[in-house]
Design brief:
Blueprint lengths: L1 H12 L5 E4 L9 H10 L4 E7 L11 H7 L6 E7 L7 H7 L3 E4 L7 H10 L3 E6 L17 E5 L14 H19 L4 E5 L7 H6 L4 E4 L1 H4 L11 H11 L3
Parallel strand pairs: 1-8, 2-3, 3-4, 4-5, 5-6, 6-7, 7-8
Helix pairs in contact: 3-4
């Protein structure tokens, strides 16, 4: 039921101008279910789920079993970012575990079009992720299968890194591509940014074209672990900055 609700939620939330996606990589894993409940209650929209394999990136995180465990905890969209190589083997497992969106890096797929189709064939929205040095030209022949474009504003692998300023120009380029495609087809594509997003820079990032914002340490580092409302102030600050755009 929660999985179906999240799919319905995806269609409803498409109409929102800005979406905040807390990355659970920075959460307290001893209390992960409660962390997710608290941060969604505080006004965020999406659960961002970072998957690292210690191969494509130099870190090892979480897999489908954790996704399956948190699916009953929330009706929010679960946005799975695969930092693994190869990707095709693991895509069906995350779809079965309750993911709503699955994104991957083009360098991690031998056939990008086929991998995007695999995500969609398993009932999820699909997307491509671009590292700071990865060109957007990978989009040239697959825009029709992309529901989300995620730009990394840090080099992937670890949380708590600083935002790379050059991402702003890349966001503008991606936004131009999306707007041209939407004008031609009428189909919307989300533009997400991940890495070093906080209340001090989120408005500038939004002005550059992003509509979905992943924040990890900026959110989960707020307040005391025993306060169920500890995320209200930081999420409120992020929303206040976005309201200025």
């Amino acid at each position: 039921m929660a999985f179906l609700s999240a799919n319905l939620e995806f269609n409803i939330i498409m109409a929102k101008q800005f979406r905040i996606a807390p990355s659970i990589l920075s959460a307290n894993f001893a209390k992960l279910g409660q962390e997710i409940t608290d941060v969604i209650t505080s006004g965020t929209d999406i659960v961002h789920f970072d998957v690292m394999d210690n191969h494509y990136v130099p870190n090892l995180t979480i897999g489908p079993l954790v996704c399956e465990a948190i699916r009953p905890v929330t009706d929010a969209i679960i946005d799975v970012h695969l930092m693994v190589k190869p990707v095709d083997r693991i895509i069906p497992d995350f779809a079965k575990a309750g993911a709503n969106i699955i994104t991957f890096h083009p360098e991690a797929s031998e056939h990008i079009d086929r991998s995007l189709s695999l995500v969609r064939d398993h009932g999820c929205k699909s997307g491509l992720v671009f590292n700071p040095a990865t060109p957007l030209s990978y989009l040239d022949y697959v825009m029709d299968k992309v529901d989300m474009i995620l730009l990394m504003s840090v080099n992937p692998g670890f949380g708590g890194q600083k935002f790379i300023p050059g991402t702003l120009d890349k966001l503008k380029e991606a936004r131009a591509r999306i707007d041209a495609y939407t004008e031609k087809t009428g189909r919307e594509i989300w533009l997400e940014v991940d890495g070093g997003v906080n209340a001090a820079n989120i408005a500038e990032i939004a002005r550059a074209g992003a509509d979905t914002f992943v924040a990890g340490s900026a959110i989960f580092g707020a307040g005391k672990d025993t306060d169920p409302n500890r995320y209200d102030s930081i999420v409120g600050a992020l929303r206040a900055e976005l309201a200025k755009v």
